[in-house]
Amino acid sequence: MAATAGSRTQKIGSVFSRTRNLVRIGLLRKPLWLDVYAAFPPLREPVYRVPRPRYGRSGDPIGAVFYREDTVRARFYKVYGNGPKPFDLTQLNFKSTCQRFVEKYNELKEEGKIEEEKLFEETGKALLASGILLQRKGVDKGAAPRDAALQPQLQAGLGELQEKRKDGQEQPPELAGTQKESPCPS
Fold first, then answer.
1. Residue 185 CB partners (closer than 8 Å, separation 6+)
2. What are the phi and psi torsion angles at 9 (to 5°)?
3. Residue 67 phi/psi, 5° resolution?
4. pLDDT tens per residue, range 80-101
5. pTM, whole model, 2 decimals?
6. Which residues contact 79 (CB under 8 A, 6 or more apart)?
7. Which pLDDT tens digit goes with each residue over 24-49?
């Protein structure tokens, strides 16, 4: 039988048997591992076997890997999108807005003071209070905010935070050495 283009002769026999035969006929110099393999063969000969089709099972037997914060990340990107700026991966300790959101979310969740339904919105408010501005996806910058009653509360909270910083309090540790993000590209 002649070998044709596209034949799969490497699937016949093992690497050991093919190498041994090539050494016997003089096409290949004897590799160092050949004697070791002959002296200590494996328990099962490593030969290619055509995988049998799996009937009754569909898809990959290994399921997708999800972490607890993946649901928070998915909801963040659904609500806020990627943001106005690309990630700056040149900085070694760069944290994306989403990562900061997830960390703050987990921090507030561990405290247990906020109900599970309001936790997402409260995390957004907490980040706003710490100086990180989030803009909802699809909201026009010139348009009025969705919740007009929330705007005065947010302004008051932001004003209090700025007054505390003026009085000599330090910057929060999560913002130390990082640049504040702005909702409009510069």
1. 84, 85
2. -70, -20
3. -105, 165
4. 888 767 788 888 888 888 899 9
5. 0.45
6. 120, 136, 137
7. 999 999 999 999 999 999 888 887 77
